[in-house]
Design brief:
The protein is of the alpha+beta class and 192 residues long. It is 17% helix and 34% strand. The structure holds zinc ion (2 copies). The site of one zinc ion (ZN) has 6 residues, from loops.
């Protein structure tokens, strides 16, 4: 799925002991269901795995700098993120009810059959959950002009030229942009 894998064989950890894994993954981007996010730094991870008989307690942190669009002006922002990983791996019992599985799932318990795991997806997930719901290039980002799309941060005072100076093509694409922005609120506004 992703271009990086981090396979760890838990069985190599002696009972009662810890394993430390630290490293960097050089990914060009992370795929999410809704976007492809370029990486501006390696994905750095530090993981500790503690073995207690057949249980493995995984904890650690992961950090990376992602390129993310500003919610207002759409310019790329370097977003430095760090996330935590925590999970318990338990040997899969012979019989386990659906209910039990659901309950354990909430507590981040993973049942294993074999002791070898690829932890890469888990690391990437830990980063993605840290993305704020609204990313801004700066607190007071002025956004873009809704008529012509000009980035309002780059101009001291923007006076839109939509009526006087835009060519018909630019005018049309500006209108389309407005129509797209308005689709939620006014569906039946324009009959003509
Ligand atoms: Zn912005
Ligand atoms: Zn404008």
């Amino acid at each position: 799925m992703s271009e990086f894998s981090l396979t760890v064989d838990f069985s190599s950890i002696p009972d009662g002991e810890r394993a430390y894994i630290e490293g960097e993954a050089f990914l060009s981007e992370i795929e999410t269901p809704t976007a492809t996010l370029p990486l501006r730094s390696p994905l750095h991870y530090e993981i500790q795995i503690l073995r207690n008989k057949e249980d493995f307690l995984l904890s650690g942190m992961v950090s990376a700098v992602l390129e993310y669009p500003c919610a207002r002006c759409l310019e790329s922002v370097d977003l430095a993120l760090s996330g935590q990983i925590e999970a318990t791996y338990k040997k899969s019992p012979k019989k386990i009810s659906e209910e039990e599985i659901e309950l354990e799932d909430l507590e981040n318990v993973i049942y294993y059959e074999a002791m070898t795991f690829d932890l890469s997806e888990r690391l990437i997930e830990a980063i993605l959950v840290e993305i704020p719901s609204k990313v801004l290039c700066k607190e007071d980002c002025k956004g873009i002009c809704p008529y012509c799309g000009e980035n309002l941060n780059n101009v001291a005072e923007h006076r839109c030229k939509i009526e006087s100076e835009l060519s018909p093509g630019q005018f049309l694409s500006a209108l389309k942009r407005i129509a797209i922005d308005d689709t939620d609120s006014n569906n039946n506004q324009n009959d003509k």
